[in-house]
Automatic annotation (TrEMBL):
Ranges annotated as spanning the membrane: none
Protein name: Beta-mannosidase
Xref: InterPro entries: Beta-mannosidase_GH2, GH
Biological process terms in GO annotation: glycoprotein catabolic process
GO molecular function per UniProt: beta-mannosidase activity
Amino acid sequence: MGALYWQLNDIWPAPTWASLEFGGKWKMSHYFMRNIFDNLLLVPYEENETLKVAVIRDDYSGSLTFNLSIKVLKWSSLNPTLTAYTIVSTEGFSSKIVYENSITNVMNSGNCLDRRECLIEVIYFETQMA
């Protein structure tokens, strides 16, 4: 869609913003860029003390059903304090909000009293194409 990704490689070995090293080895940013033009995008955001998750689809694949996972993690632990799942269905070339819940409810359900101590992770798992 006309996007340009120009910070690809270097012509000499040096610490730069390029995503490929001089010899062709991938840096962490290149692994991230691999998925930047994916056809399915989850957009979690907060609006008026409400956690919302929007799904943006940019393909002709028809109906898609997948599991949406929302986790609350504390910075002091590797294990999530809350894991919630919901099944979501979307159509091709669409954008819609698929999840809404109060931030306070999500944090309290995850035993997180101070928002600075926690992180919310939103991911999806595809289940089937229709």
